[in-house]
Structures are given as C-alpha cells and as structure tokens.
Amino acid sequence: MNIIRRLTQKYLKNNRSRTLVTIVGVIISTAMITAIPTLMMSFFRAMQQNAIHDYGNWHVRYENINLEKADYLAKDSNTAWVSLFRLDGFSKLENSRSPYNPYLVLMSIDKNTLGTYGIQLEEGRFPVNQNEAVISVDAYRLGGFEGKIGDKLTLEIGRRFALKTETEPEFELGYEHNYLLADEGKPPLEELRPVSVEEVTIVGLIKRPPIETFLMPGFSVFRYLDQNELAADEPVSALVTWKQINTAANKRANLLGKQLGISSKNIVFNTNLLRLYGILSVENLTTIYLLVSVLLVIILIGSVFLISNAFSISVVERSRQFGMLASVGATPAQKKQAIYSEAWLIALIAIPIGIVLGIIGIMVTLKFVEPLINAMMNESRIALTVTVTPGIVTVSALLSLITILLSAMVPARRAARVSPIEAIRQTQDIKIKANKIRSSRLVRWLFGFEGDLALRGIKRNSKGYVITILSLIISIVLFLTVFSLAQYGFGAVGSKVVEFKYPVTVAVRSDASEAEIAEFYRAVEAIPEVTDSLLVQTCYGTIVIAQNKLPPQWIHTDPWAVTALELKPGEQLQAVRLQVIDDIAFDRFMRENKIDLKYSKGEPLPVLILNPEIKFNQAGKIIKRGIIAVQEGDQFDLELTKWNTENENSDRYVNKITIAGLLQESPIEWTFRYDSNQIIVLTSKSIFSQWNEVVNIDPEYNWEELMLATEQSAVVASKTNDLQISMGIGDTIINDRVAFQRAEYNTRKVINIFFYGFVVLIALIGITNILNTILTGIHLRSREFAMLRSVGMTPGSFNKMLRFESLYCGLYALMYGLPLGIGLNYVFFRIVKRSFLVTFEPPWLAIGIVMIVVLIVTMAAMQFSSKKAKQANIVETLRKEAF
Amino acid sequence: MEILTVQNLCKNYGSGDTMVKALDDVSFSVEKGQFVAIIGPSGSGKSTLLHTLGGVDTPSSGKVFVDNVDMFSLDESKLAIFRRRQIGLIYQFYNLIPVLNVEENLTLPLLLDGRKVEKVYLDEIISTLGLGDRLGYLPNQLSGGQQQRVSIGRALVNNPALLLADEPTGNLDSKNSSEILQLLRLSNKKFHQTVIIVTHDESIALQADRILGMDDGRIVRDEVIRK
To answer: If you ran DSSP here, which 8-state letter would residue A581 be given?
Structure first.
C-alpha cells in the first residue's frame, strides 16, 4: 500500500472520535440523499399500483388484430404477457335506472385479462366458455338489473353509432364513449344496431371492474374468450404487459405495431400508468421532480459544508505532518492525495452504511404510514413497500461520493499548499492583519475589555470568522427552507377536525321521479341513527348591484352577459345562490336566531342573506363590514332562468326579492370554505312555493341535497346506500363528510410526519455543522488562548470574551440567514403555487425557533470548547511541539 | 568537485522601514564530501540559510545550485522530488511521524518516491546508527538521542547529495550530543556525504572541516580547519 494512504489510515485510527464524527456526518447525508429518491420512487410505486388498479396492468393495447399477430406480440422479448380482449357489443338494459348507462356492455376476455384488469369475483364463479358470463355488481346497484346467478339471458347484441348531425357524419362508438343522451322531446343522438342474438348464462358477480369508468355507457358483462374457438381472422385486442418499462419499450411497441402492419390509431398506450414511469406525458410530475431536486441540492450544499469542515480540521491537525512530509520531499499532489485518500476511506465506510440506513429509515417510515394511508382509502388497499432500484442506489452512492470529494476539494488544496517551513513554524492558521482597528465604545461599555478584545480579534482575523458565520448562515437557511417545504408542501401545521352538524349528505342524480325521491327521503330520514335532517334545494340567479356595495375582489365587468336585467354605470351583475330549505328546519332556524319571517301573497320574496363580516383594504384604510353592504328591507330584482326545450334557450324571469334579515352563519354547513363570489340567500320551502304560485316560474333546481344529522355517519351512509339499492333509486351521491374529513386529516398527518421528520434531521445536521465549525475555530486558536491565559487572563474574563464572540457570530449569521431563508421560502411558494392553492406567509414559527436555537447552540459550543481550552496545559499548548 | 554553489542569496522579511534582511548577499560553495559548520548568534540568519539550501524556504533573490541543478528554477512538485532525492534534512526536534514505526520513518523518503528499499544499504545505515533492535518501535517509545538517530537515518536513506542539520544536538544532553555528532562524522566518512550543520556551539563547530560564521545575514568568517 502507498505510504500516503497508510499514513492517512493511521491518522484516522488514532483520531477515532474525530473520524467517527466525520463518518456520522457522511452517513447522515448519504442516508438523506438515498432516502429522498427512495421515498419518491416508493410513492411512485404506490401510485403505479393505484393506476394499475384503476386502469389495468397493461402498457399497450393493439386493437383489431388477429390471433397470429397476438402470438407474435406474445413472443416478443419484452413482452411479459398478453391478455386478449374483445368488445362483443352492446345490449339494451331494459328499464335502466341510470340514464347515462342504458346498456350491458358485452366483452370477452381470456384468463390473463382477469389479472391484467384486476377483475375480482364477488359471488359465483368465473365463466369457462363463450356462453357463460360474469356481470358487474353495479348493474344491480345502479342499473336496476334483476337477473340472478344461474339465469339464462337472451341478449340482442349490437353496435353503437352516433347519428349524423349537421356538423358531423355518422361514426361508431366504443365502450369508452359515454352515452349520448338526448334532451327530452328531442330526437335520439345515438342508435344501437343489432347484429346478433346470443344466449348467456350468468355464473358470477364481480366487483365493479376498473375498466367500467364513469364514461362507460353501461355495465360490464364478461364472457370467456377461448383461443381455440377463435377464427383465424376474427379481430381481438391484445393488451401487452411489458417486462422492461421504459422509453425504449415504448419505441419498440410502436415498431412492433409497424412490423405487424397495425395502424397507429389502433395502438393505444396506457398513458395513466406509463406517465408514472416518466414515459409519455410527464408534466404532472414536474412539480414533484422540482421539489425533490431542490431538496437534494439543499442537502448536498449542507452536507458539503458539514463534511468540508471535518476535512479542514484534519488538514489543520495534520499540517505538521504535511510539512514534515514536504520537507522529506512529498509533492503537492501527494499532500492532496493524503486528504483525498481520507475522503475515499471515509466514503468507503460511510456510504454503504448511509445507503442501508436511508433505506431502512424509509422502510420504517412507510410501515408507520401505511395504515394511515389505507385508513383514508376505503376501497383500494395500497401497499406502501420500499422500492429500491439499482439506479437509486447507484445515483445515491455517486451523489454522496461527489459530496465527499467536493467537500475534500478545498481542504485538499490547503493541504497541498502547506510548505515545510510554515508547518515547522506553525504559523499558517493565524494570519493577522496589522491594520488599525476601530472598536466600538458601545461594545466596550456593554462587554468591557473582554468584548473589546474579542471584537478586535474578530476584525483582525476576519477569515476565520467568515467560515464560522457562513456555516451558521447555511444551517439557518437550510432549516428555514426545509420548514417552508413542510409548510407549503402540505399546509396546515395544526389543522383540526371540524364538527359537522349534518355529517351525511345525499343527492340523487338518477332520473327517479319526484314521488320516488320523496319516498326515498322519508325512508332515509326514518333511519334510527338519523337525529335530524335538512333538505336544501339550490338554484342560481342573478341580481344587479352597485359595485361599491361589493368587496373589491368581487368587482368585475362582463360585457357579454346575456340578461334581462338593466345595468346602469357603476353596477354589475352578481351571481346569487338561492337556497330553499324545508319548513321544519327553516322554522327552527328562525326561532333559534329570533327572526320573524312572514309572507303574504303577492309581496316580493323575503330572503335571509348570508353576510358575514370581512375585513378588506380600501384606499389604504382597513374596512370592516358585511361582505355586501346591504340592510334589512333592501330590495333587488332577481333574475331566474328556466331552460326552454322548444326554442333551445333560457326563458328569463325577473322578480323582486326583499332582504328580510342578515345572517353571520348559514344553517347549511359547507364541506369547503365559503369563498365563492356568490351572494347566498335563504328562504323556506313554503314561502318559496307561495311566492311561486303568483310569479309562476317554477324554476329549475340546479342541485338538491338532503343533509342528515347523526352521531354515526358511517352507519347512516351505508344504510342510505342499502335503501337506495333496495328502492331502486339509481345513481345517488352519498357523502360521509366525517370520513372524508378524517381521510383528509390523515393525509395531512402522514405528510406532516414525513416533513417534520425531515425538518428535525436537517436541524440536527445544522446543529452538528455549527458545533463542528465553532469547535474547529476554537481548536485553531488554542495557542492564542494559551497565550492569553499565560499573561493572566482569568477564567471569568475568558468566558466573557467567548460569550461576546458567540453572540456576535450568532447575530451576524441571523442578520444574513433570516432574510435569505425567507427569500428561499418565497421561491418555494412560487414552485408549489404551480400545482397547489397556497398563500405566502413568512414562517414565523421557524424564524423563532432558529433564533433561539442558533443563540443557544453557539453559546453552548463556545462554553464547551472554552472548558476544553482551560483544561489544556498552557506551556504544552504554547510550544505545540509535542506532535 | 563542487556539490553546492550559492550565489548572491538574499532573503527579506517585511518591506519598507520594517524590512529585515535575514540573508544579505550570501555567496559560497561547498566541495563534495566536506563537513561544514555554520555558526552564529541567534538571529544571524543561519537557520534561514540552511532552510533555503534545503529548498524548504524560498529566497527573495539569488541562486542555489545543488549538483549543478538550479533549485529554485524548479516548480513546486519538481522541487519536492529533487529534495527527497538530493537533500536530507535533520531538525532540532527530530520531526518524526508519530504513527509510523522506526523502520517506516527511516524509509519514508523512499516510500514517498515509490522506490524499493535497498536492503544492503539500509542494513548498513541501521547498524551504523545502532537502531537494529528498535525498528518496530514508535517514536514516542524512544529517547531523544534515539529519535535523532532515526532522523539522521531518514536523511541518509536516499543517499542524498547534501545532508543538512539544523541544531541537531540542540535538544540533547552532552553525552547524546557527542554521539550524534560522531554519527554525522561517521556518515560523512563512510558514505562520503556532504554535511552542513547549523549550530551556535563553537565546540561542535570545531569538529567540522570548515566553519562559516554568520552575523546580520552575512558570512563574516570562512575558514577551513581540516582537510
């Protein structure tokens, strides 16, 4: 072995504690460098699993090919497996309760397809021949299908065609095209043309398969596709699942298509899955990549500073050794090599440990996080397993190695410059400018002679302090940026669960009749766990209002608006959400709020207006008032519209409304924050219908929702679901807001765990860095200290001097570090703003933490090292010959 | 044959009013195999001169030829290589590397040069220095005299053109001092080395072939006392 390397090894062995600190530093940074892409890949993997669940585990689909071509595809070296799939056609589902799902969609699949599409049996068995089929459970739940397992159905199977219109010719529709529902009284837009009549026996029920998206115009029925019974020219689709998923595979897939003469429109990629591998469109991933890169850069910079410090110390400690080596003829390159071989040795030990620890760290984190994530995803269980690819390990190792070598670069150059004579005299590390220094009277007054001495020292030997202050600044900035990441990445540091009075909402979307819906509502309200209910019908209207009555952010002009209302200058059209509440709830609400709302026929419609107080800045003054500057008794013209199917236009009705009361809060709770630019007005069902008898509009409700009060939201939601199925109501949105909120809360908690964990790690790195720098600084000055003590500086004075120094360094670093950190915080805000709704806010909490921690750590470090300096033997240190 | 030629060597510290001339136009030459002692009071410039001859300090002006090579025309790397092959340095405080044992310290210049150790020559040095039973020891397990012997051995191991010693006995008692001096004399004879030694002790200087006296950065005396 080379003598330089052997010397380095011996040095490292003899300075075990220092070596250990360096190794721990490298391990921490390597672990973080590994953890971040591993975490990213693991999340991508989870997202891929999710996409596979939703869209199927295939990568490319070749449509309209024959069996021979499918075989050729199956034999390709990058093909893992091929699933055969054939759309057989559509069959009318008589009396479908779901207006957009009028068909049974017949498809044939082979065994592979079951896995590819994740088709799961709920009851019965899978088909084994062309005459057997399984059917989606939603045909029963939503479509009102009544067949049972074992039933033999005779189906008229056909093809869908979109009928010719003035602008477009006729064309055929597939299963991924939604049903073209015609308006009432209008001619149909699509037609089913029968091709054959076939008999099918239902042998099983399957969970709604992912292929059955909301666009599919019906419910899936899968038959068995037997290759042996397939005619040579019969067209099928082949779903190919690749072995290697990368851009090359993508190209190869196109090439294979070309070889087989498949036209490019018949080659369909599973884009939703492939984009998660960074193939095809990657736009959505850019924000993630950007954040990960910024994080990595921050870690790299922080690590370089930290590790570089360790090597600097080593250079100082070994400078005599280097000088001696130089005097017996070591070249600058050999001195450099001494530091680099130290770097390599440390890398060799620390990088593998760091990578393993990083992976284990993520493993443990994911273990904790998995149940939380699964708690918020009711249906699909996502397995959060650590994904380690050779790529990640290689990249992490390389990045860490680069970090270490970069860290060693400057110290190595310093080592190369150590000349024998300098080392022999040991004068290199204290270079003092002899210029005149002005010291501040204030300092002298506040901190006495010792403060004065420290300040002179600082100013004379500014280079040494620059390093200390720089590393302090780096730590501050690191901490603030990472904190910002947590802040913007996932908001709400302390979000809490809101208590809903009406946790379950029910909205019917199917074409069930009014009487059916009313009966359904009665049944739902009769569920024992339901304690109270509130029916809200909402329709949208427009009023004209003076712009000065609106908050500034609502003011707009809309020159193209179609309206029957008259606009004068300074006025604008304003959207109004009119919410009609059932009488029982409304009366109770009035009683509770001591409002008396009376109505006699022919009067304008009395409404309560939701008008909470807001603050805003107008012409430099903070104004506090209701959102809309109105009073009780104010009247407005309200325009309501109703669609006229005959002339295909909206009929407009304008009628007067009176503001009968102002409300701070609405009896209706919104799941989301009230922030739309809409005036919200409320009235009761009976008042509205009495009014309507006179004005005779009977406006369309845009939305109708039954809100249910309960202690057991999950039970009520599931019983409502049962009722909806048993009563055959069809498509209904049942929203358990408690569960939704809990899920959201869990997500935030999970992500906060990640980010705050990371913040803590960064804080630790920062503190290590500060400690290391200060300790080095003091170590370098041990001769100076010994000298001061030898001329009789008392321990008290000594401490005073150091206290002043640490205060000076700490404040100086904060002065530069805080603005820089806040600036970077803003940069993060800009990045995150690309994809998420966030508002900029300086991280006050983090700033507070940083200020306290920096001052404490600098003080503690100084105190610790001064203690060490005091223990040292003065003469020994002064001579510094014991080498 | 002249092994060392020094021409108009100057070394200044500081500038203007505060300039100190450590070496002031020093010129001399040394024959191969000569044992030279440089003597002078503290601050006379003798150590600066020795360090400059050894190539570890650089002159402000002037030239040094060792074995006809202009030392300061070499770049830093070449100078380092030249130094490890042509010059052996011995310090007052030995400057051994504490983590290397005696044998490793002895052979350090060879190891740095990536060369094989010539066993016969090394054994001869070791036996001459009387370190045969101490080869595996670390420097702090040796006495001062023994440590200085190791550093002499290290200086000799490359068979350099020039052996420079800076107060080699400054840190030793009289018994050890005379031992070290005898060793230097011995190597001067046995290996036909050119030796230059800096001292402030007249009695040590008197054992040399030639004495150079220095004061205020100049050579004030140059006498050959032995041929």
So the answer is: E
Contact check, Cβ <8 Å, A324/B83? no
- Yes or no: say if B221 and B212 are a contact pair by the CB < 8 Å rule: yes
Residue A489: enclosing H or E segment and its boundaries? helix A462-490
Any bridge partners for residue A681, and if so which? A578, A609
Would you place residue A752 in the very low, low, confident or very high pLDDT band (cuts 50, 70, 90)?
low
Neighbours of A689 (CB within 10 A): 12
Instruction: Tell me which chain B residue has its CA closest to the CA of residue A6.
Output: B100
Question: Per-residue DSSP letters for A15-65?
Answer: THHHHHHHHHHHHHHHHHHHHHHHHHHHHHHHHHHHHHHHH-S-SEEEEEE
Predicted ipTM > 0.90: no
A633: left (phi over 0), alpha (psi -120 to 50) or beta: left
From the list A751, A746, A778, the residue with the least C-alpha distance to A868 is A778
Burial class (CB in 10 A: 0-12, 13-18, 19+), B86: buried
Mutate to test the interface with B, among A328, A418, A421, A880 (most CBs of B within 10 A): A328
Q: With an 8 Å Cβ cutoff, is A879 touching chain B?
A: no
Distance from CA of B49 to the nearest CA of A (A): 12
B108 closest CB neighbour out of A3, A10, A883? A3
**pLDDT exceeds cutoff 70 at A767:** yes
Here the contacts of A834-838 (C-beta below 8 Å, separation 24 or greater) are: A834/A286, A834/A287, A835/A287, A836/A488, A838/A488, A838/A491
- What phi and psi values does residue A13 have, to the nearest 5 degrees? -65, -40
Label residue A753 by pLDDT band (50, 70, 90). Answer: low
Residue B160 DSSP class: -
Average pLDDT of A855-866? 80
Residues of A in contact with B166 (CB under 8 A): none
Q: What does pLDDT average to over chain A?
A: 79
| A7 Cβ under 8 Å from any chain B Cβ | yes
Q: Quick: pLDDT tens for A103-126.
A: 999 999 888 888 888 888 888 899
Say how far apart CA A38 and CA A32 lie, in whole Å: 10
Per-residue burial over A471-508, b = 16 or more CB atoms within 10 Å of its CB, e = otherwise: bbbbbbbbbbbbbbbbbbbbbeeeeeeeebebbbbbeb
CA distance A734 to A588: 25
Does the pLDDT value for residue A787 go beyond 50? yes
Residue with tokens 């913040």: A759
pLDDT band at A433 (very low <50, low <70, confident <90, very high): very low
Chain A residue numbers with beta carbons less than 8 Å from the beta carbon of B113 are: 329
- State phi, psi for A159 to the nearest 5 degrees: -115, 150
Pairing assessment for the beta strands A613-618 and A605-610 based on DSSP bridges:
unpaired
The mean per-residue pLDDT over the stretch B86-112 comes to 82
The pLDDT of residue A794 is above 50: yes
Distance CA A499, CA A513 (A): 34
pLDDT for res A378: 46
pLDDT for the residue A134: 93
Query: Which chain A residues touch B76 with a CB distance below 8 Å?
Result: 331-332
Quote the CA–CA distance of A407 and A597 in Å, as a whole number.
77
Interchain contact, A334 vs B91, CB within 8 Å = no
Continuous H helices in A549-666: 583-593
Interface residue A274 vs chain B (CB under 8 A): no
State which residue of chain B sits closest to A336, comparing Cα positions: B77
Q: Which residue of B has its CA nearest to A879?
A: B93
- Most confident listed range (A107-111, A179-183, A498-502, A728-732): A107-111
Q: Using an 8 Å CB-CB cutoff, list residues of chain B that contact chain A.
A: 51, 54, 56-57, 76-77, 80-85, 87, 89, 91, 93, 95, 97-100, 104, 108-109, 111-114, 154
pLDDT at A743: 63
